[in-house]
């Protein structure tokens, strides 16, 4: 006689990324932002030897939404014709304009331009440590909760697709790994995070690192 064994998931209390409230997310972001070192996180240790000159200020929105009873993150796939980071999975956002008064304004303005999400519909929960990329952008991640479902309108010249990934899936260590990216000698290879494919999309690089940073903050 065969016996069917059903694996029961761990209780949600062991996965705070599933059940955590907006208020608690905001509290943790505020605490981390005010207590942590504010110098930028580098995409890899030898970055400053590759990216010369002052970095270009930029910001992205990390959109949190509730769907199917849990938190999910919203991502975009960049248009393959774009000159930088073409075809990559990313958070909505971009370079700061001279008139932007803060990274929050940059993130909300760029998100509205890229996917049609109105700034008034975003509940900003906080910011994370700036991240300096190999293309010499100083990116500030802004975390915000958004209503769902929402009538998004992607800018066709910038965004090829909009999709979501459950935060619980992103938090599973079996779903991602660090790989090494070769750099010119004498520099050591850089560590790069790659996720397994999800719904045909591969999250990696700077956006994957920001995702992991958020998850670690929510688990702390």
Descriptive report:
By secondary structure, the protein is an alpha+beta fold. It has a single domain, classed as Nucleoside Triphosphate Pyrophosphohydrolase, CATH 3.90.79.10. Helices cover about 25% and strands about 30% of the residues. It contains 5 helices and 11 strands. It has helices at about 15-20, 20-35, 105-115, 165-170, 205-220; strands at about 40, 55-65, 70-80, 90, 95, 125, 130, 135-145, 160-165, 175-180, 190-195. Strands 1, 2, 3, 4, 5, 6, 7, 8 and 9 form a 9-stranded mixed β-sheet that branches. A two-stranded antiparallel sheet has the order 10-11. A hairpin with a 4-residue loop joins strand 7 and strand 8 (about 135-145). The longest helix is centred in the C-terminal third of the chain and has 15 residues, at about 205-220. The radius of gyration is 18 Å and the shape is globular.
Summary, kept brief:
The protein is built from five helices and eleven strands; from the N terminus they run H-H-E-E-E-E-E-H-E-E-E-E-H-E-E-H. By secondary structure, it is α+β, with helices and mostly antiparallel strands.
